Description:
mainly beta, five-stranded mixed sheet, 9 helices
Amino acid sequence: MKSFKYIPLSAIFSGFLLSSQLLAQTGMVKGRVYDQKNNEPLPFVNIIIDGKPTVGTTSDEEGNYTLSGIDPGYVRLVASFVGYQRYTTTDFLVTRSHPVFIDIPMNEAAVTLEDVVIKPDAFIRKEESPLSLQTLSIQEIERSPGSNRDISKVVQSLPGVAQTVSFRNDLIVRGGGPGENSFYLDGVEIPNINHFATQGASGGPVGIINTDLIRQVDLYTGSFPAKRGDALSSVMELYQVDGNREKFGGRFSIGSSDIGLTLDGPISKNSSLVFSVRRSYLQLLFTALKLPFLPTYNDYQLKYKINFKNKDQLSLISIGSLDKSKLNTDIKDPDAGQTYILGYLPQYNQWSYTIGLVYTHFRKKGYDNWVVSRSMLDNEEIKYQNNVEVPDSLLLNYKSREIASRIRYENVTELSKWKITYGAGLDFVEYKNQTFQKVFLENQLRTLDYSSYLSFFQWHIQGQVTRNFFKEKLELSLGIRMDANSYATRMTNLLNQFSPRFSASYAFTDKWFLNFNIGRYYQLPPSTSLGFRGNNGNLVNDSLGIKYISSDQVALGIEFLPRRSSRISVEGFYKGYNHYPFSLIDSISMASKGGDYGAVGAEPVTSTSSGRAYGFELLYRDIDLFKFNVILSYTFVRSEFTNAFGDYIPSAWDNRNLFNITVGRKFKYNWEIGAKWRFAGGSPYTPYNLDKSSLVEAWDAQGRGYLDYDKFNTLRLSSFNQLDIRVDKGFYFKKWSLMFYIDVQNILNFQAELPDILVNTQPDGSVIKYTDPEGNERYELRTIPNRTGTILPSIGIMIDI
């Protein structure tokens, strides 16, 4: 030990680099090449490492291949075969400890080789959605600076997607609200992808999805295929990896907020399992930092897949979470900000799960999909005045549960130049709610006290036809979808929710494309609104005529693909909303709500609000620009919804200018460095109603001030920007691998502006009450500045075996 401390630091560093070179020896990739439409194996397909044509192999008569001699790290495969379109996989990680299994689906070319338009294949293009689709590989998700491997934060770098200054994971796409999105995990619909999810919307502070199980993410910001419904702003498709087919392995990880374990391996000759669990330790950090709330979250995720020869596959998909947040009432001498949060924030208990079976049967010209699933979200909130847990102090006791049992059928058939999809689905929805809440309405304190149980069926049918013309230069796709439900007779007719959509893409050359889409989309309001009852037990919003929200959308774009690795696009869009729920309490569109914690929608609403969101997007993306991976996007967006007078006013998501640039590069010895800079125009906000807020009864009912909705969004915050830096390093040993990263968020220490906080305490912590000339008892209120942002470093460690 005495001699060790005299070793020069330069010698240690040199040995560190040398060991990296010696340990970073070759890995292996195995898999199967098959025809995507019927799962038939494809023999003699050429497979190479992208960028390294000398490292390659061919598939055997059963379509199987083995590719060795691969340097550890993230790589892509390129597969080519006469009569089929060339296929490039997304990035995946190769180590020395065990082979990686990558199956390669290939699509048959519709025309002869000499006639086909050769399209660069590094970026996925889908006939049904030739524009408004972005794809992220696992490397881009894992290595995204400032995101801590959280998919919701990663997609905020894509065009059309905004980041809120509150740093939540609300998915705000093209000016739409956070409740306008839907999510699918290997084809199974999941209600949300965040812990402490806002019921009735989709946001939360931390993502549920474990990236250890993800291989690819597709985000549709428009031009949704007909098989995907109940969304107005985006559809996110998440695809998971399969378990290792030869031996069990796993990953142990420690991140900035949680610790996790992932296991995967074969269960039988034809089946595999991949499974993960995670638990947070944020409550320990928050206690040390004296933050007023202490969150704890847990989650699990699994995929079990079994292959019945080449014609049938069955997958079991499940994901779930358990979240608890309690108040840190042990803080000694809390400051004004801590007192404010402790005064209004309730305690949360939330748990959710989705479990589903996906059965796929392949035919000669296509395949059939059957999806059966069940999802549940249980949400509880409780709040006592001054956090004194006695019955007379109870302000809020909210218990709610949503359950959806679903069955869906999809048929895909390819006939020469035609691709035909059709299907149908049936859901059974249950909603339970028990609410006790004190609210201050119409200048008096009232009590909401009701129980609600609601159940109804909803169903849909859909079909889409796609064909190419003029030697694959022109692709046209026409889709139709219809939705209905048994909640109310006005929504039982499928034709009332007739949802057509049409897409076209024309290739001027093998590098220039003109893309177009037009469509109408429908979404059912959240169950919190459908199941809201008055104290008399009646369904309030049913009597007010609540109905489906509709959105007419059009998008036009030009796409230029200068190289296989690069893409440049310009896309304009317009979204027109009708029948949006309108709050009768606040007299604003519900489109501007959903960006806070708890639940949204449990109030009287009418389907009378209209809205519009429009703008354009610029995107430059290159996965190999002088060895840099670059994503550069700019979005101009306006988002407006009508008020009580029918006038269009800015919504909460009217940022107008969004700019993102993400840059990353690999270096020798398995080092990677990345940087991300984000800019967002100032969000609109609403001033306080000081007259109402100062009333003692009003303040005590919710523990904070009330907004002046007559002046809704008349003010605007300053613009926001943030620079994040990340460094990754990998060590690839013979039987295990070690990877770590250092992530520094907001390295420039930018202080973002938020609306000032209205408090009822004085600088010395005292509370002053007085009686006004009308005899009303009031608090003496004051505002304190509210800025957020600090340099936030974090370290992550991952061990693969």
